[in-house]
Amino acid sequence: MSESLLNEGPAGSDAPVHGRRAADKQRKGRGENDGGKSDRVRRGEVLTLSALCPGLWTWCRFPHVRCWVVPPSAGSSGPSSSSSCGTATVRSPVDPRHSVPKASAAITMETVEEEEGTESYLTPVLSHAPFPTEAAAESRKLYRALQDYAKRYSWAGMGRIHKGLRNQARINDRPSIQKPHLFYLPDVPSIPFFPRDAHRHDIEVLEASYPIILAEFQAVYQRGIDTKLGWSYQGPKGQTVFPLYNAGVCVASNCRACPCTYRTLLSLRTFISSNSLGSAGFWLLGPGANLGGAYGPTNTRLRCHLGLQTPAQCELVVGGEPQCWSEGHCLLVDDSFLHTISHNGGAEDGPRVIFSVDLWHPNVAAAERQALDYIFAPEQ
Predict the structure, then answer these.
(1) Could you read off the pLDDT of 172-187 as tens digits, one per residue?
(2) 193-365 domain in CATH 1.10.3720.10?
(3) 312-338 per-position pLDDT tens digit
(4) Phi/psi of residue 280, each to 5°?
(5) What Pfam families is this protein classified in (predicted)?
(6) Tens digit of pLDDT for each residue in 269-292?
(7) What per-residue confidence (pLDDT) applies to 59?
(8) How high does pLDDT run on average in the chain?
(9) Are 355 and 225 contacting, i.e. CB atoms less than 8 angstroms apart?
(10) Which of 3, 77, 244, 293 is deepest in the core (most CB within 10 A)?
């Protein structure tokens, strides 16, 4: 038997065959060399692709991982990777031609200056700006009262009041058909005569009470007009007032003389009874009397005139608009406009008599009403 056959050994034998082992080892070596070479070639291709498209390389290696390409931070010069997108976040270089320009410092400063230049109602308060030097002593007193109110309660809703107090001096100096001399609330829509719908409830209450109000006035009038009996003279000779409320203060003796009228006042929803801007009472204007142009103290109220005795020759002109009273009916008047009153009738016509009640302007908010009650608190 030849040497080659002896080396191969019997078929199915478990004995090692040195020739076969050597051949297998040789083939394995050649395979490893070929595989290493092919791996190196593939690795070189992949490296080339990764240099051109890092995101594609990551997706090829990990197709099951979702990655987002994040532009590099300012000042970076190459790609960087960090693991923060589920599993990994890949940062790739961004083409500078398509990059978003960064805002310059000059643009940022201009924006800040514009924001700082915008002045709101409360800017002087927050910045501790001094009150206008040209403001009158009365305006300064009211402004201190507003600050005291804000310390106790809140600045919320006080924007218009704050602005009005600071600008009151300019309002008094300008020529205008509407110029309240005490306090002007800005941004309040105003017309000389308001429709009934502005205070429908209170007007209906007053008109329904017209007979009893007229009866109580006649009882007081028949006792005579005398300051000792509760009457007072207002303005020129011929105009007298029997007040139930005078500048926010109840005149107790006069209210006891007209109990039904007093209860009617208390049933009104918008009657100004808690500050010096509000009054109520019977106003008489004798024949031949004329009241020249005058302005009311504020535009935060409306005067409601209930006609009790209105001769035909009486006229009311507010803001250039003439109007006449009617017995048993109400007129809503903004007396912050320039207004005149005249009674051109004779002695036989008797005086013109109205029941006047001050009501809140419908565009004054509840928070502003509370603050005005505090600021214009009546002096007891």
Answers:
(1) 677 789 989 899 999 9
(2) no
(3) 889 999 999 999 999 999 999 999 999
(4) -155, 140
(5) Asp_Arg_Hydrox
(6) 999 999 999 999 999 999 988 887
(7) 46
(8) 75
(9) no
(10) 244
Write down the pLDDT at residue 140: 84
Domain segments of the chain: what residues?
Answer: 36-68+83-90, 121-173, 193-365
> Structure tokens of 141?
């007193």
CA 106 from centroid of its chain's CA atoms: 32
**Encoding tokens for residue 55?**
């995101």
